[in-house]
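does this look right to u?? DAU version
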Amino acid sequence: MTILVTGGAGFIGANFVLNWVSQMDEMIVNLDKLTYAGNLQSLSSLKGDPKHVFVHGDIGDRPAVQKLLAEYRPRAVLNFAAESHVDRSIHGPQGFVDTNIVGTFQLLEAVRGYWQGLEEPGRMEFRFLHVSTDEVYGSLKTDEPAFTEGHQYQPNSPYSATKAASDHLVRAYHHTYGLPVLTTNCSNNYGPFHFPEKLIPLIIVNALAGKALPVYGDGQQIRDWLFVEDHCSGIRRVLEAGTCGETYNIGGWNEKANIDIVRTLCGLLDELAPAITRNVINQATGKPVEHYAELITYVADRPGHDRRYAIDARKIERELGWKPAETFESGIRKTVNWYLANQEWVKGVMDGSYRDWVALQYGASNA
Ligand code: NAD
Ligand code: DAU
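got this back:
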């Protein structure tokens, strides 16, 4: 048996692949375009493992996906591949339309053809799982209840609008063609291998370097945080037991204001990697840093910044018996410890050398 994942060199995809290989006795084929967000160093521990096959390619390349499906005959396709950073989508939405909308469409077409050609019982058992986000639901007011699966779609950024479009395409392929699809809408993830353009890894990396810790606007925006391995276990559970055509919200009931996240990270770093003993110098003043919170800097807000997200995860808990294993306190401590223990991974990202890994591992023609 085999499953095919797309975007498995990104943050969540890599965690999913690593967890899958360590826990399941089933091969995983990993199709990834290796954009700036794809990092094969995150998967370096799998080198030589026959259960993981990496394929460098684009979900929007329908013939290439068709070939892959014909070759590996997966029982499921899980689509993690996307352009995922809201700020980048504001600066340049084109890539988001190309991958999140057109890419998902091409992938769906390839999968539809493959699925229609399957014999029973493979055809009945096949699943297409689409990994999506809570951002498709828009922004909540302070006193509004958390997003349920029935919440109206109200995407506010180019990123969330393209994810919403992809969710609609996936839904339509079930409704129109009967493709056995599952969609998950998850809240903000954090954990190992998170690219330091996103809030939590950015704060950790900047603090250790004595750089400003940028907080957008008043810092009172609320996100609902889930440890990445819990997201992965939720996806596995939906793949295993979810009802085709249904969507499942995944979240850990951990609403936090951004400024509280930043202060929590500063406190953990003060405890685990004191600035004084590491000789951290404030890059703006040239003076030694005593407490990392000294580096907090309020900056201009993100245009169209959603105020609050919150996931109502009762459906997946009730129907599929899923619950997160980590509390926010245990997950964030693990995360800070991971970044402290994996400075080489961080360095590779910061100096760009993680991109050389492709050439080193797969030859110059793949780089
Ligand atoms: P990421 O940006 O870290 O990784 C995306 C991966 O997709 C990269 O490896 C990249 O190379 C690959 N990719 C991009 N375009 C591709 C294409 N055209 N073909 C093949 N591969 C391509 O993203 P992430 O944070 O790991 O998010 C994964 C998925 O989960 C996304 O669909 C995202 O919308 C969703 N999601 C993310 C979060 C979060 O907090 N990060 C929360 C909920 C849902
Ligand atoms: O909600 C799920 C979404 O979470 C995913 O769909 C996205 O792919 C993922 O990137 C994430 O989106 P956010 O925009 O919420 O994540 P980000 O880490 O970029 O920002 C988190 C919050 O922190 C947000 O309110 C903006 C704020 N922020 C972010 C950065 C990078 C800052 O205040 N300063 C920063 O420097």
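The longest strand covers residues 127-133. idk if thats expected tbh
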